[in-house]
Amino acid sequence: MKELIELARRRCSTIPYRYRVIAVCFDSRGDYLGMASNYYGIKDSKSQNCHAELRALRRWGDKIHKMLLLRFGQGGAIRAIHCCPSCDKVMKKKNIKIILAA
Ligand SMILES: [Zn+2]
């Protein structure tokens, strides 16, 4: 788990936004699937914006059993994060367990 957080931290340094969130995904056996970051598209095209949870879902779909949600501040410190109401609804519907790192 520690290695994954390190990996996420390195990955987040490539996210060009102030708000940097990574969803680390695991399958039902607890095996690591991969990680997804948040994405904000071009201004004024709201449909391009996507939270890390939804991007992960698009990639791994029903394989995902749980997600570790991480947000990193400047310098790589872990910051408090929680699912927004809209993602929360989707995660509950899909029966995905969200784990918060902070
Ligand atoms: Zn969200």
How would you describe the overall organization of this protein?
The protein is an alpha+beta fold. It is 28% helix and 25% strand. It has helices spanning 2-12, 52-60, 85-93, and strands at 20-26, 32-37, 66-72, 78-79, 97-100. Strands 1, 2, 3, 4 and 5 form a five-stranded mixed sheet that branches. The chain is globular and about 35 Å long. Zinc ion is lined by residues 51, 53, 83-84, 86-87.
How many distinct folded domains? 1
Report the uncertain regions. Answer: none
Q: Helix content range of the residues, please?
A: 25-40%
| Strands, total number | 5
CATH architecture: 3-Layer(aba) Sandwich
Number of helices: 3
The level 1 CATH classification is Alpha Beta
Anisotropy-based shape: globular
Going by CATH, the homologous superfamily would be: Cytidine Deaminase, domain 2
The share of residues in extended strands comes to 25-35%
What order do the helices and strands follow?
A: HEEHEEHE
Radius of gyration: 13 Å
Small-molecule binders here are: zinc ion
Largest sheet descriptor:
5 strands, mixed
Distance between the termini: 14 Å
Find the CATH topology: Cytidine Deaminase, domain 2
| Arithmetic mean of pLDDT | 89
* Helix/strand structural class: alpha+beta
